[in-house]
């Protein structure tokens, strides 16, 4: 069961169709796992339907209906769907794999410490930095705080920190005032997507000399 | 033939067509759900179903008559010129025809379903990045992620009450909702534009959703 959801404003902006690319990607990926949030989004979309219904109309151009009727039977352009291998389909939700457009095995994991690896995924059109993060099973990574908002979506395994336990599909919201030290569940590496709006700041002496905190 | 003429023609050919009488199924579903009756919305749902079932062009004409002006206005409110708005409206109406089979009235009203179509058209046109797509088959595979029938019924009731309760919103609340849906503005853009703290915008929208009984009352 999903225990940690994205904030309502993120779902609202997504449902209204006004969220930035990074937020849309995060929301859509979470929705694959979470029926409660799909319900919330559908309720906000219902508000959109009711708002449109009350809108004073703008007259269509002369001949608009005939033009549309004439195009109804045009063959629909069907874009080829990218194919992904079974591991990718199991771990990455559809919005994320469409965005990456690559199989997991083709991504190059970079070792960041003895216990964690990352794949930098570049920036979305709104400037947010996307990263795939892998924490080795049973290990913890060092304290860091975040400047700017950070979201973490768990894709495989799980981890715990001071705020609780996060499993597949859960979204953690980074708070600049909180230092946390995630520890991956034993048995399986934990893979997450992180979305960061600003630069990461490591804290503490250990952090400054860039030594990982190893359990 | 314009939409009105097509509907007239169909009425002559098929007595009872388009009289606004809600279908029996729709009435029974609403009675079962304890929701207020809404013959117009029921009729619009019937029209989408008639397109899906039989490629019914007269039903499409009715939908066009109802939605085309609203969809055009919707796109223009977001800042598009009339030509672009006309073009997107026409594309959205063609998508209504093509996607009719995916419409499910137990999950959303016709207005809501068509809102999602025109919203996605607006995103695809005005942004570099297109809207992320969720594969429904993937959701079906995760049993815990599938919505329960209770959730769907409760949402249908909330949606049926929605139109009546919109008038209960304060001017402040309705204006932020309008900015989001019609002017293509996110929470943070609205906060900049109105010179209000982000927290104030968040709570206005939250309170509006709570008042419309779309979400539970926030704790604060
Ligand atoms: Zn959720």
Automatic annotation (TrEMBL), chain A:
Residue ranges of domain ChrR-like cupin in the record: 119-195
InterPro entries: Anti-sigma_ChrR, Anti_sigma_zinc_sf, ChrR-like_cupin_dom, RmlC-like_jellyroll, RmlC_Cupin_sf
Gene3D superfamilies, A to Z: Anti-sigma factor, zinc-finger domain, Jelly Rolls
Top-level taxon of the source organism: Bacteria
Protein name: Anti-sigma-E factor ChrR
Organism of derivation: Oceanibacterium hippocampi
Automatic annotation (TrEMBL), chain B:
RNA polymerase sigma-70 region domain: residues covered: 63-131, 166-213
Entry keywords, A to Z: DNA-binding, Sigma factor, Transcription, Transcription regulation
Keyword Transcription belongs to the record: yes
Keyword DNA-binding: yes
GO biological process: DNA-templated transcription initiation
A GO molecular function held by the record: sigma factor activity
Family membership noted in the UniProt record: Belongs to the sigma-70 factor family. ECF subfamily.
This protein's name: ECF RNA polymerase sigma factor RpoE
Lineage: Bacteria, Pseudomonadati, Pseudomonadota, Alphaproteobacteria, Sneathiellales
């Amino acid at each position: 069961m999903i225990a940690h959801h994205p904030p309502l404003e993120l779902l609202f902006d997504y449902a209204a169709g006004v969220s930035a690319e990074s937020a849309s990607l995060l929301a859509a990926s979470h929705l694959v796992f979470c029926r409660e949030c799909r319900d919330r989004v559908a309720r906000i979309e219902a508000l959109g339907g009711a708002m449109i219904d009350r809108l004073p109309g703008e007259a269509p151009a002369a001949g608009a209906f005939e033009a549309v009727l004439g195009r109804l039977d045009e063959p629909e352009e069907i874009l080829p769907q990218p194919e992904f291998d079974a591991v990718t389909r199991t771990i990455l939700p559809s919005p994320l794999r469409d965005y990456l457009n690559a199989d997991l095995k083709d991504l190059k994991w970079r070792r960041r410490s003895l216990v964690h690896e990352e794949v930098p995924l570049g920036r979305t059109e709104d400037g947010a930095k996307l990263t795939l993060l892998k924490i080795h099973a049973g290990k913890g990574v060092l304290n860091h705080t975040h400047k700017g908002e950070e979201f973490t979506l768990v894709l495989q395994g799980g981890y715990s920190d001071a705020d609780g336990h996060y499993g597949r599909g859960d979204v953690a919201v980074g708070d600049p005032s909180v230092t946390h030290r995630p520890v991956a569940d034993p048995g399986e590496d934990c893979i997450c997507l992180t979305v960061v709006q600003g630069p990461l700041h490591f804290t503490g002496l250990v952090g400054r000399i860039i030594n990982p905190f190893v359990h | 033939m314009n939409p009105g003429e097509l509907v007239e023609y169909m009425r002559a050919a098929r007595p009872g067509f388009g009289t606004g009488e809600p279908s029996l199924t729709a009435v029974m579903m609403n009675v079962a759900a304890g929701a207020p009756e809404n013959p117009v919305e029921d009729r619009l749902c019937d029209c989408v179903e008639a397109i899906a079932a039989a490629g019914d062009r007269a039903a499409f004409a009715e939908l066009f008559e109802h939605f085309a002006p609203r969809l055009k206005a919707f796109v223009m409110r977001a800042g598009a010129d009339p030509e672009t708005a006309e073009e997107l409206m026409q594309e959205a109406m063609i998508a209504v025809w093509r996607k009719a089979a995916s419409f499910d009235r137990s999950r959303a009203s016709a207005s809501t379903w068509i809102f999602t179509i025109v919203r996605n058209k607006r995103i695809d046109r005005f942004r570099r990045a297109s809207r992320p797509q969720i594969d429904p088959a993937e959701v079906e595979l995760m049993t815990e992620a599938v919505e329960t029938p209770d959730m769907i019924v409760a949402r249908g009731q909330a949606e049926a009450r929605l139109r009546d309760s919109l008038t209960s919103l304060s001017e402040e609340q309705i204006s932020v909702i309008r900015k989001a849906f019609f002017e293509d503005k996110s929470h943070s853009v609205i906060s900049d534009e109105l010179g209000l703290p982000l927290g104030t915008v968040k709570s206005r929208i939250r309170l509006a959703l709570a008042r419309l009984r779309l979400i539970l009352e926030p704790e604060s």
